[in-house]
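Thread amino acids onto this structure.
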């Protein structure tokens, strides 16, 4: 398991893009900057955070 091998207390494995966006929304604070990097459909995490944050008045 890559997360266990990283030995970083803040490392998390979140299996789905929607779940990852929800996790980020629960942990981002005003003034934070979210930068997403990846391949394939990883960009959807940032789009989901923006869309969901907009609906909740957090972005």
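Threaded sequence (59 positions):
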């Amino acid at each position: 398991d890559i997360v266990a091998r990283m030995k970083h207390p803040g490392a998390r494995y979140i299996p789905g893009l929607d779940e990852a966006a929800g996790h980020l929304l629960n942990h981002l604070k005003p003034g934070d900057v979210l930068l997403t990097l990846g391949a394939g459909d990883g960009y959807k995490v940032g789009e989901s955070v923006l869309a969901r944050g907009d609906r909740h008045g957090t972005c």
